[in-house]
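hey so i finally got around to running the thing on that chain from the lab meeting. sorry it took forever, my laptop kept dying and i had to restart like 3 times. anyway pasting the input first so we r on the same page abt which one it is
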Amino acid sequence: MSTQHGHDHENHETFDVHGMLLFGGEPLYFSHLPMFRHPAHRFQVLMEVDFRPEVREAVRRDMTGDDIHTFVPEAFDILELDPDSPGPARTSIAGTVFRGHFERGGRPLVKNVAAEVKRVAFFRRLEPRARHDDDAPLAYLCFGRAGALHLAHEITARPDFDQILEVRLVPGTVRHEPEPPQPRDVLRQDFLTPVAVTFGRVDTPGRRLVAGDRAEGVFFLGVSRIGERRFTAEVEVVREVYMETGDLT
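ok and heres what got predicted. didnt touch it at all, straight out
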């Protein structure tokens, strides 16, 4: 079951049922389903998770189709997932795995299971009063294991969109800027912590990356996008896992 905490639900604004998109394979991931209109859900969160073996295999077998999968947890305070929070970190989340979107006709696949939170890779509170800059470059967060990478659209300000993609880096297209003495083979590199990636198009739903796209991205490896550590590479989109605009208006 989920780890218990001594907060007594003091953060009433952030204590709620936090629905998650479940995706990946090896490993599995949760992406919190954000909503600007509700204070409890103004968070973009990406995390690596796992289940007990029989649940893990049941979920992976069911992921061979085109349906999305979601996870509906018991209510908890999402701030317990913040790596910078002074309180105890949440290490597991109890809930139910759904085939499909749990609020849009999805059906329970595995009930009353505990998802182990192995790593919170990204956690950001969204600002509801900020307005989206449609002229900004299209920006994503790249994460995953070598050969099994994902892009999550970087949510910044309303109106925005939530999107998860399966992608691969195209061999022979990687260029380091500047070229280091011994450049890493990024095609074999794991991105456990997401890195920012921008593309040469505007940041709107109509200009997003879609399945079959092949576009050059700039990958920023430092703490900011102004630093020197970066590389460019062509990204091929294998599949669009999830796309949502309505909850982020």
